[in-house]
């Protein structure tokens, strides 16, 4: 049933559905000779009748299935039937209407619309609620369930509310994962970056200073290699606790790399405050670390840079603290150095990476890899996702996670993104020419690229030039792309769909997961994020969320693909949950174009081999019998 095709007046007046016949239950129709007869047997209402009155009529007369609606001249306008009426109207009004009624009444009333109501205590945990709903059937994502507190009716919630709850919780978890270091529990580089930015703004306003202490453990690699990783981990935790003791309560202690830490001191009156903390830390490190039967003195080297004295640009300030730290290492370790103006920065600055990336685009050092997306049961190829790689002459293959954010920041993403579009389409056309079975090409589009004014024009040109069938092109957008300037986004999405290209939401469930945009936007597919797939067989929360996403996709007629499947057990659980397509190392890693061809041909050979062996089995069993 397509709900969108039934424009409804969402006010307290009567609902008018343009396709009433859709909502007449089939057996009703069988017993009534014609729809007209059915209508004639009921007393009509005027289309201006308040909907609460109509609802009362449904409540008071259980025999009524549908009510004809007439206009002021008594001409029939439409039918309003119980099911649709309840779906659209009873829910918002339910608290008002049912709040005064015993729960039993509510239960009886709800049962008229085909399904036993689901009653959930509002103290249940969300996983249980998800289990209950999914156990009872997918349609409850839409039709909802009743919420009680100590068995008293509280209201009606639907699957959307449920999903929002799940998302909010997940977001809190993801926030923690994204901002804190797992091993030591202190802020990571991202959160440090935020706090540093804030601290500098504050300092500017108040005329104060901010100090950055860049701390690196001396010879940590030796410790790790000789005494083992768990000892290494324990040392890092001990260092964090000593950093915290040396710093002031209000300072931020962050871990920004394996054995690299930063102390951020804000609201500082004079730079000496930082020296004091550095000295205190060096002194505290003289006490041996006693752990797991070992006792050793671990030393650190510290570099200090001060905002705004040494720099007002945050990343350069970090680089200067880092350079000072290297100075401390170079002059014997176990000490601290303050940044001295004019010292060469040790860290290759971002600018060089940026110009290298620019060059890489020009010189063709970028490459596309393709990761198969397969039927989760038969493992037959359905499509590939294009994933960009940078073959750096010195650093080797660089992950897009490293250079896409940089490209977005400096605007290079537009050229990069266009190159990706062009190359992916060219490759698809090439495979097509070779006679491979049609497959989908999924292409990631970054937010900056999507928001570019002429994005659709570029897309159209590329499609025309590459002569691919747009029906096999899918663009992957993240939820964050869809959340800003909703009206403009909607127009762009419509234009893209009008070209025949389809749309997928990448990493679904990790963003805002607003149900509103899902219903409004012409999306074709949800990609279940790999964080939900990970260990799904042992993680009930992941299973519940995945179930909810699949139910949601079904209720909105969206296709689905699960990302990051690594294990056969994960594949099996997802298949059982009704997920139809999968992508992940379990099936294939991202492959070069040549390797994709090999993969396809091997798959084809394997499937014809299994055909042959099936035929042989059939022949054998026939000859035995
Ligand atoms: P994504 O679009 O979510 O892509 C999936 C990422 O998961 C890929 O990482 C892929 O290699 C990785 N992956 C796939 N299967 C598994 C698995 O079983 N286990 C694990 N642990 N990982 C798996 P990759 O290639 O490093 O790409 C990272 C992200 O960079 C992509 O995430 C996408 O957001 C972005 N990206 C990649 N190529 C492009 C591009 O051409 N344009 C834009 N704008 N972004 C891109
Ligand atoms: Mg993607
Ligand atoms: Mg993804």
Short description:
By secondary structure, the chain is α/β, with parallel strands linked by helices. Helices cover 49% and strands 20% of the residues.
Fold and architecture overview:
The chain contains 25 helices and 22 strands. The chain has an eight-stranded mixed beta barrel with strand order 14-15-17-18-19-20-21-22, surrounded by six helices. Helix 3 packs across helix 4 (82-98) and helix 10 crosses helix 11. Mean pLDDT is 79; it is low at 1-30, 88-103, 105-114 and 345-350. It has 625 residues and is an alpha/beta fold. It folds into three domains: 2-178, CBS-domain (Roll), CATH 3.10.580; 180-346, Alpha-Beta Plaits (2-Layer Sandwich), CATH 3.30.70; 352-600, EAL domain (TIM Barrel), CATH 3.20.20.450. It binds ligand C2E and magnesium ion (2 copies). The site of one magnesium ion has 4 residues, from loops.
The CATH class assignment of the largest domain is Alpha Beta
Describe the sheet with the most strands: 8 strands, mixed, barrel
Bound molecules: ligand C2E, magnesium ion
Q: Which strand-content bin applies to the residues?
A: 15-25%
Say which CATH homologous superfamily of the largest domain is assigned.
EAL domain
Based on Cα principal axes, name the global outline: globular
Mean pLDDT: 79
């Amino acid at each position: 049933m397509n709900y969108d095709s039934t424009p409804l007046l969402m006010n307290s007046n009567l609902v008018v559905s343009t396709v009433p016949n859709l909502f007449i239950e089939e057996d009703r129709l069988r017993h009534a000779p014609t729809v007209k007869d059915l209508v004639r047997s009921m007393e009509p209402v005027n289309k201006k009748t308040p909907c609460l009155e109509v609802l009362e009529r449904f409540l008071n007369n259980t025999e009524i299935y549908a009510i004809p609606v007439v206009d002021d001249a008594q001409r029939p306008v439409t039918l309003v039937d119980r099911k649709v009426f309840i779906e659209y109207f009873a829910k918002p009004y339910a608290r008002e209407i049912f709040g005064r009624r015993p729960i039993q009444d509510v239960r009886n009333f709800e049962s008229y619309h085909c399904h036993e109501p689901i009653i959930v205590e509002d103290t249940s945990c969300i996983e249980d609620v998800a289990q209950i709903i999914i156990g009872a059937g997918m349609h409850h994502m839409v039709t909802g369930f009743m919420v009680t507190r100590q068995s008293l009716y509280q209201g009606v919630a639907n699957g959307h509310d449920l999903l929002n709850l799940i998302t909010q919780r997940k977001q809190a978890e993801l926030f923690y994962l994204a901002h804190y270091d797992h091993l030591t529990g202190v802020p990571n580089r991202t959160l440090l970056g935020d706090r540093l930015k804030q601290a500098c703004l504050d300092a500017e306003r108040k005329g104060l200073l901010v100090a950055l202490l860049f701390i690196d453990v001396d010879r940590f690699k030796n410790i790790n290699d000789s005494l083992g990783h768990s000892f290494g981990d324990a040392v890092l935790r001990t260092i964090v606790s000593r950093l915290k003791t040396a710093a002031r309560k209000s300072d931020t202690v962050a871990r920004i790399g394996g054995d690299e830490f930063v102390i951020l001191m804000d609201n500082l009156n004079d730079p000496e405050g930082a020296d004091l903390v550095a000295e205190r830390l060096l002194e505290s490190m003289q006490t041996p670390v006693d752990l797991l039967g070992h006792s050793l003195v671990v030393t650190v080297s510290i570099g200090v840079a001060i905002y705004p004295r040494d720099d007002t640009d945050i990343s350069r300030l970090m680089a200067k603290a880092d350079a000072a730290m290297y100075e401390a290492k170079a002059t014997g370790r176990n000490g601290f150095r303050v940044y001295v103006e004019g010292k060469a920065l040790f860290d290759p600055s971002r600018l060089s990476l940026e110009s290298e990336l620019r060059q890489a685009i020009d010189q063709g050092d970028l490459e596309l890899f393709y990761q198969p997306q397969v039927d989760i049961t038969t493992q037959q190829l359905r499509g590939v996702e294009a994933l960009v790689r940078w073959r750096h002459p010195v650093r080797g293959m660089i992950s897009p996670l490293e250079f896409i954010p940089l490209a977005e920041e400096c605007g290079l993403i537009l050229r990069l993104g266009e190159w990706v579009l062009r190359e992916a389409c060219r490759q698809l056309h090439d495979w097509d020419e070779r006679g491979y079975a049609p497959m989908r090409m999924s292409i990631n589009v970054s937010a900056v690229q999507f928001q570019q004014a002429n994005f659709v024009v570029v897309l159209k040109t590329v499609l025309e030039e590459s002569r691919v069938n747009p029906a096999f092109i899918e663009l992957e957008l993240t939820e964050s792309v869809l959340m800003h300037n909703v009206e403009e986004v909607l127009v762009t999405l419509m234009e893209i769909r009008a070209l025949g290209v389809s749309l997928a939401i990448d990493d679904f469930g990790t963003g805002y997961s607003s149900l509103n945009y899902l219903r409004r936007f012409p999306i074709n597919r949800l990609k279940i994020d790999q964080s939900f797939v990970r260990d799904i067989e042992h993680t009930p929360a992941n299973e519940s969320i995945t179930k909810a996403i699949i139910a949601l996709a079904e209720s909105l007629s969206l296709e689905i693909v699960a990302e990051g499947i690594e294990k056969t057990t994960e594949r099996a659980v997802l298949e059982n949950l009704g997920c139809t397509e999968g992508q992940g190392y379990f099936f294939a890693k991202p492959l070069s174009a040549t390797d994709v061809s090999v993969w396809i041909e091997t798959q084809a050979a394997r499937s014809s081999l299994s055909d042959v062996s099936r035929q042989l089995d059939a022949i054998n069993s026939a000859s035995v019998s």
